[in-house]
């Protein structure tokens, strides 16, 4: 009888990184693989429904909660997720605090049966590489980004493009890239050249180069040129196994994926059912993006002026007294026949899969893009930070399945900066282009639907991502040491 493979999954504690790794845990466990998923107390509470569902169903996922050293690194109590961080200094401290988990985790893994046979960890949890070598098992690198960013980051650092940026270059075009992509200095992911990240970045890249392979939440038909080139330049296997969330069709899992929804899902579905097919623009900016009160109000004015039905997610951090006062002074009443506001966390996959959704205004986080792509939804792109401007290029210039809202620089992270980067008229123009009946909108919708079909085919039996999962498990089993 074959020995049971045991995968240890170590995400970065940020919702955009954790959610796809929860999807990965379910995907691997559905193939009979034993999975250990590493988290912390505060983060475990966010995925409590996943933990309880795994226990109740008997699928082989073990969630291990490790104490996170907030106070020791000058972080506020309970600051165990990047969405709790409010400054660069705390962000760097948070990343270094993660490294202290190595000792406790190694001790736990040494006692497990079956013993670990592989570690898949976030690229920013590079300390797991030393642990994997100590345990004598492979370490595969994972990131919450797509293949485009993996290749861009590698070429950017290998070509020392960060030196050009730090010396005043206004933009960067990488030579030899499969697509012509130009980013201005203000749009380049900050982690690639911020001075305070230099040592962390160097250590992370060193371990990326020493990893035994890379797992990416994408699919071949979406990013084949980037994946092929990335695989060639790093000289190791790149496993494309996405969109991973499509591999779990359990309705309860999909509805509660990532967090407990802040709206009764039956209510949300009833509202969507009352709308015409492909008529609603869905507006949501993920878990980390911060939107100032003035910008939230400007978004509302633009949605109202567009005369388009909308479903708008306003995160808890944006629900300031100023915003709530403005919403209550007539906006919700004026738009009640064609608008629904969700305050907090939305069941995004459930929403995007509904036939009433005709467009998605997004911050361009990779998970959100992949979800929109998988359901054939064209997008309005509004990048905020990280690799999101790069993702916008993929949607608008390469795939041609969306329109840019026109933002040229990052949105300040500090909550006290009340900036407005997008005006009401910008909103109206973008919604009109995406949702209109002209040739441009129809062409984007057709291309989006075609990509959605390819995404779903990738995870079906015989699809590229489905086959890659099989090959990945087979390779890890082949590398396992015989039982003593």
TrEMBL record:
Enzyme Commission code: 2.4.1.-
Class of the enzyme per the UniProt entry, highest EC level: transferase
UniProt xrefs under InterPro entries: UDP_glucos_trans (IPR002213), UDP_glycos_trans_CS (IPR035595)
MF (Gene Ontology): UDP-glucosyltransferase activity
Keywords: Glycosyltransferase, Transferase
CDD domains: GT1_Gtf-like (cd03784)
Gene3D superfamilies: Glycogen Phosphorylase B
Source organism superkingdom: Eukaryota
Family designation: Belongs to the UDP-glycosyltransferase family.
Name the record gives this protein: Glycosyltransferase
